[in-house]
Amino acid sequence: MLKVDVAGLELSPPLVLASGILGVTAKIMARVSEHLGAITTKSVGARRREGYPNPVVCPLPYGLLNAMGLPNPGIDYFEEVIREFKKLSKKPIIVSVIGSDSPEYVSSRAEEAGADAIELNVSCPHAGGLLELGMDIEQVRRIVRDLKSILSIPLFVKLSPNIQDIGKLAETCEKAGADGITAINTVRAVKIDLLSKKPLFKSIYCGLSGAAIHPIAVRCVYEIYEKVSIPIIGVGGVVNWESAVELILAGASAVGIGTALTQDIAIAKEIASGILEYMRSEGFKSVSEMIGLAHKR
Amino acid sequence: MLKVDVAGLELSPPLVLASGILGVTAKIMARVSEHLGAITTKSVGARRREGYPNPVVCPLPYGLLNAMGLPNPGIDYFEEVIREFKKLSKKPIIVSVIGSDSPEYVSSRAEEAGADAIELNVSCPHAGGLLELGMDIEQVRRIVRDLKSILSIPLFVKLSPNIQDIGKLAETCEKAGADGITAINTVRAVKIDLLSKKPLFKSIYCGLSGAAIHPIAVRCVYEIYEKVSIPIIGVGGVVNWESAVELILAGASAVGIGTALTQDIAIAKEIASGILEYMRSEGFKSVSEMIGLAHKR
Amino acid sequence: MLKKVGRVEEATEVSSGIYLLRISCPLKEPYPGQFVMAQPPGLEEIPLSIAGYSGGELKLIVAAVGETTRALCRMDVGDRLWVRGPLGRGFSYMSRKTAVAVAGGVGIAPLIYLVDARKREGLKTKLVAGFKSRVGGKLIQLLEDLGDVVIATEDGSIGAKGDAVSVASSMITRSSMVFACGPEPMLRKVVDLCMSVGAAVECSLERYIKCGVGICGACLIEGEEVSMRVCADGPVFDGETIVKLSDFDKLALDRSGCKVPLHGGCPSR
Amino acid sequence: MLKKVGRVEEATEVSSGIYLLRISCPLKEPYPGQFVMAQPPGLEEIPLSIAGYSGGELKLIVAAVGETTRALCRMDVGDRLWVRGPLGRGFSYMSRKTAVAVAGGVGIAPLIYLVDARKREGLKTKLVAGFKSRVGGKLIQLLEDLGDVVIATEDGSIGAKGDAVSVASSMITRSSMVFACGPEPMLRKVVDLCMSVGAAVECSLERYIKCGVGICGACLIEGEEVSMRVCADGPVFDGETIVKLSDFDKLALDRSGCKVPLHGGCPSR
Ligand SMILES: Cc1cc2nc3c(=O)[nH]c(=O)nc-3n(C[C@H](O)[C@H](O)[C@H](O)COP(=O)(O)OP(=O)(O)OC[C@H]3O[C@@H](n4cnc5c(N)ncnc54)[C@H](O)[C@@H]3O)c2cc1C
Ligand SMILES: Cc1cc2nc3c(=O)[nH]c(=O)nc-3n(C[C@H](O)[C@H](O)[C@H](O)COP(=O)(O)OP(=O)(O)OC[C@H]3O[C@@H](n4cnc5c(N)ncnc54)[C@H](O)[C@@H]3O)c2cc1C
Ligand SMILES: Cc1cc2nc3c(=O)[nH]c(=O)nc-3n(C[C@H](O)[C@H](O)[C@H](O)COP(=O)(O)O)c2cc1C
Ligand SMILES: Cc1cc2nc3c(=O)[nH]c(=O)nc-3n(C[C@H](O)[C@H](O)[C@H](O)COP(=O)(O)O)c2cc1C
Ligand code: FES
Ligand code: FES
Fold first, then answer.
1. Measured between alpha carbons, how far is residue A290 from residues A223, A229, A286, A295 in Å?
2. Cβ pair D185, D165 in contact under 8 A
3. What's the CA gap between C249 and A119, in Å, rounded?
4. Which domain holds residue C77?
5. Which residues of B are known catalytic residues?
6. Mean pLDDT, to the nearest integer, of A135-154?
7. Residue where a domain stops, chosen among D52, D87, D122
8. Does A164 contact B293 at a Cβ distance shorter than 8 Å?
9. Within this chain, do residues C246 and C187 fall inside the same structural domain, yes or no?
10. Which of A10, B31, B107, C151 has its CA 20 to 30 A from that of B223?
């Protein structure tokens, strides 16, 4: 009952590990994948990056601020991680690719290594120039088109809420050939340190995730669903089954989980069983009946 | 010690009632003004509006969703409210004016009635076409310029976080003659009702306020401060003195309080004394020493 | 107070157009006089006084007067709705050993909970429930189960003939604490009488409720030097406050925020 | 666990380059073996084991090895810093009546709290604290105040001569529960010895910590079929788990997420 097809990926349950969350080694991804339908890796580029110095997170009562800075070992190293994951787990692996660091090269290497899909990250609000990139509709269109011309696996584009019209950008991605949209990345934020009286993070800007951004994620998914017919992976503030179901009703075919893993690494299990119970009590026979239902007049 | 000059308004403490919060009658504004430096009225237009039907709010653990729909009696009625307030209180009254409903007419009537400043609302995320207006840099420039040409009291422009480059928009406002910026309005959101499986609000879209948006408000104020030299009234998620001080260090000359009044209508008192204590312990002699300090290298 | 899902356990017509709803919905223990915002899925959210609460079960007394209340009253067992509360400030119901409660029409709702809560604390309350005309046997039964009850109808069709206040007046003059809920002209009479005999009085008032949490300003009731939010400073106000509220029994805000005359009794009935 | 402001109450050099910090900072009562992320204003946030906690006062034992630890050690009374914690999972410190604790260098930090917490519960612990060479009198005093302590130095300059494990070995073989913290080559010896004599063992491990809340993946330590987050599944792991961790004493992730050889002992010292 919890099975969905998302751009050709079969996900059961319709829950995905969000990018940047533990997607570092094959073994941890295999461990986390147990209760999920698919996993997304951390965002990878052509070059190795160490990310920003500590502090890289600041927990809030209602979410998390982070400025990791896209640490990653580079695709030359990471393709081995992909291969190893494919040996350890049958779950689809979506490889997140940094949009500003040779995405074509990285994506094709990832595909060769066995990636089941690529997620193009054009939306990190504090690193890699991705905020600016993700807001430049022309550039996004070009990258998506170029990537599609070389890839045979599905391509998702991960969008930022820090944009005027996310529906329009999603539409552009669809027209350029994207197979799906992932929304949302973190919301651009700043934290001031009351002791140093300076921004807490060395990068000044950081990203807000967790419960606080859930109503924003639902809005973005709702807006995107109005504009495109490709599937949406809804991400942002999913902390329980209710928040997951809201995203599905708003238009998400599957739901990503990130920050909530700080509460419990196996939280997806609970979320999946909550969705199942909701479906039973409301008389839904499949997840696909629920997708985008909030748009029906 | 808590006195600041904001575009010619003398505020003590540097705390302002945010627009749409109780700013309906002269008497309630007078009551609330006791612990504040100034009050902002609800947003007023030329025509009477009833707003959306209930539900108009949905409390969250970390904030509030609202879709009031800009209810207001229209300026012909409201100018009496302004006059009455001026009799009841010595605190400055900032009259919020709906940007899409004859702002020139409304503002000049408000000025005549005794308004100490006008706040141009071009940023409601769910009503009055203000979301679209607030994102149209050319229109905002024109309205600001036209208003400035007829007003002799200071003009603040209230901006939305639902925009790509809030710094640039603020800069445009400054160039067009605005005397100050108010940031931010609520963040555009959607809530899906799991029982009806439809958007909870009749307007579909709603606005997120309260603690959840504080790091976004700090970021917006930080970005605006980098771009303009007119004063900023920082609003969004101020729930205690710490959140108020963060906004000031990020660049706000004064701080608006909205949703936090659901906890305690006199919360400003506590916030003011917290700010004072922080100033004493950190050796600040005036609020102005703190404004924008986080930008100093 | 977050919105919570309630489940209808019973919806019975206790008198013509007046329903008793039992809803299972765990809330923070409410005080008598507090209210909830109730919303049947897809319809409006409206304020309703808490007529009872125990063991996670909420009781409401609803008059079917419009779309939302009618929908509520038509709900079947097992149907679900949104409930937000308890909201507002209730009666200081423990303050006196004996008291009189005066209800007009469906204003009975919060007083049922009050009388019951006082009974559980060993405090006595004489309840005078006034109606226009004959009411259903189930409602009468429900009231009589509470203890010391006098029913009054304006047309004398059952119980004492006359409005609730005149029927209650002798009890009020002998009492030191009076609680009341009903149309404002009636409440005015209660307050005036209490002030004249020196009895403490608390009334539950009504205004149009939007946010219910004290920030939108829709529900203000004011006097020369006071401005009160019915949803957050009330809905229960004491006599000293009420006499200062020149809006009382006269003016209310309309949905746009204009202050307009209160038509008829309760602004919302 | 939110960031909280801590206030330095004392910063004393207890041995050359090793400081005892007392910080007032109300935390959720920590377990021995848990750690905090500490950040002097404007500098990095680093992991430090909790060396003691009572009545809102946190004790840390810090080796000044780099910019942040040096800054911490130089702090004056009244200076403030950010503290986030307690984080991670600690020792199962109550599980046995008697136990041996083996420390290498500043690995002593969590064991001080462990021994003290056990003492408060009436449980005995023999502490063997090994150092390269002579340590300061204040540190020795601090350890001796805990009770049953043996000091070992590799050069024999004070206490027993030899590394902590060889000095502790006879105690370990007679014990059923061993706690340890120190460089991984030392911990390996402890684990091997414990496994061979059938004693239960728990070690506090270190890896580069970024988020500290189990979501960034910076601190993974792995084996053929296990992947553990030092910050959230640890930092304390039991012997059964450690023997499955082929990374143990061999590999660690660098800051980019490459798995690289562990140079020297502890990845972070
Ligand atoms: C604090 C408080 C407690 C109340 N307790 C009860 C109770 O226990 N039992 C009961 O039957 N009724 C109670 N009411 C009145 C009840 O809220 C209205 O009867 C109900 O809202 C009508 O909704 P409707 O859609 O059925 O009718 P509509 O046709 O929408 O309106 C009918 C009348 O109800 C009023 N009304 C509608 N919406 C609201 C609102 N949001 N706030 C206030 N009035 C409104 C209208 O002004 C109109 O006068 C209470 C009102 C308040 C303010
Ligand atoms: C769980 C845990 C508990 C610890 N407990 C203590 C303790 O009680 N007392 C103590 O003195 N030290 C402890 N450490 C080690 C301590 O964190 C490092 O010594 C400190 O981070 C060095 O920072 P620096 O800026 O002074 O030095 P740098 O010059 O930045 O680094 C010196 C060494 O410390 C390591 N290091 C730097 N940052 C980190 C980090 N974020 N996470 C892990 N290692 C890092 C580096 O890899 C390097 O090997 C602990 C480490 C961990 C993981
Ligand atoms: C610590 C952390 C690291 C992240 N790293 C990435 C990343 O590398 N690439 C990416 O596309 N998104 C990244 N994100 C964003 C998440 O994938 C997700 O979009 C966002 O956190 C919202 O979901 P959540 O509220 O469930 O966490 C990161 C988020 C966090 C909290
Ligand atoms: C119920 C409600 C009504 C509001 N109405 C208005 C309004 O009429 N005009 C306006 O400019 N902002 C309005 N706002 C936005 C607030 O002024 C403020 O910008 C926002 O709520 C963020 O501040 P807060 O987190 O302190 O509430 C409203 C907010 C709320 C919660
Ligand atoms: S209903 Fe909003 S203040 Fe009372
Ligand atoms: S430091 Fe981030 S998972 Fe451990």
1. 17, 15, 7, 11
2. no
3. 64
4. 4-87
5. 124
6. 94
7. D87
8. no
9. no
10. B107
pLDDT, tens digit, 9 for 90 and up, residues B153-209: 999 999 999 888 999 999 999 999 999 999 999 999 999 999 999 999 999 999 999
- What region, left, alpha or beta, does residue B210 occupy, with left being phi > 0 and alpha being psi -120 to 50 degrees? left
Q: How far does the centroid of ligand 2 lie from the alpha carbon of residue D262, in Å?
A: 14
A with D: how many residue pairs have Cβ under 8 Å apart? Answer: 116
Candidate of D37, D65, D220 to mutate for ligand 2, largest count of ligand atoms within 8 Å of Cβ: D65
Shared domain for C95 and C193, answered yes or no, is yes
Q: Do A62 and B211 touch (CB under 8 A)?
A: yes
Into how many domains does chain D fold? 3
Do chain D and chain A touch with ≥3 beta carbon pairs under 8 Å?
A: yes
Q: Which residue of A has its CA nearest to B163?
A: A164
Read off the pLDDT of each residue in B271-297 and give the average, rounded to a whole number.
96
Claim to verify: residue D56 and residue D133 sit in the same structural domain: no
| Complex ipTM value | 0.96
Q: Are both C230 and C194 inside the same structural domain?
A: no
pLDDT > 70? residue C265: no
- b (16+ CB within 10 A) / e for B17-27: bbbbbbbbbbb
- Residue A55, preceding peptide bond in cis (omega within 30° of 0): yes
Interface residue B58 vs chain C (CB under 8 A): yes
Together in a domain, C186 and C256: no
Q: Do B192 and A61 touch (CB under 8 A)?
A: no
**Do D74 and D115 belong together in one domain?**
no
pLDDT above 60 (res D266) = no
pLDDT(C262) > 80:
yes
Residue B184 preceded by cis peptide, ω within 30? yes
pTM of the model: 0.97
Active-site residue, A220 included: no
Question: Measured between CB atoms, which of B25, B72, B195 is closest to C227?
Answer: B25
Q: For chain A, which residues make up each domain, given as ranges?
A: 4-295
| Cβ separation C37–B55 shorter than 8 A | yes
Domain's final residue, options C35, C57, C87: C87
Q: Distance between CA atoms of B94 and D75, rounded to whole angstroms?
A: 47
User: Chain D contacts of A235, Cβ < 8 Å?
Assistant: none
Q: What is the DSSP string of chain D?
A: --EEEEEEEEEEEEETTEEEEEEE---S-PPTT-EEEEE-TTS--EEEE--EEETTEEEEEEE--SHHHHHHHTPPTT-EEEEEEEESB---TTS-SEEEEEEEGGGHHHHHHHHHHHHHTT-EEEEEEEESS---HHHHHHHHTTSSEEEEETT-SSSEES-HHHHHHHHHHT-SEEEEES-HHHHHHHHHHHHHHT-EEEEE-----SSSSSSS-TTEEE-SS-EEETTTT-BEEEHHHHHH-TTTTTEEE-TTS-EEE--SSSTT-
CATH number for D163: 3.40.50.80
CATH number for the domain whose boundaries are A4-295: 3.20.20.70
What residues of chain B lie within 8 A of the CB of A189, using their CB? 215-216, 218-219
Contact residues, chain A, for B190 at CB < 8 Å? 215, 218-219, 222, 250
Q: How many beta-carbon pairs below 8 A join chains A and B?
A: 112
For residues C97 and C196, state if they share a domain: yes
Give me the residue from C2, C210, C225 closest to B56, CB to CB: C210
The number of CA neighbours under 13 Å toward the Cβ of B73 is 19
pLDDT for res D268: 35
Q: Which residue puts its alpha carbon closest to atom 5 of ligand 3?
A: A20
A33 CB within 6 A, ligand 3: no
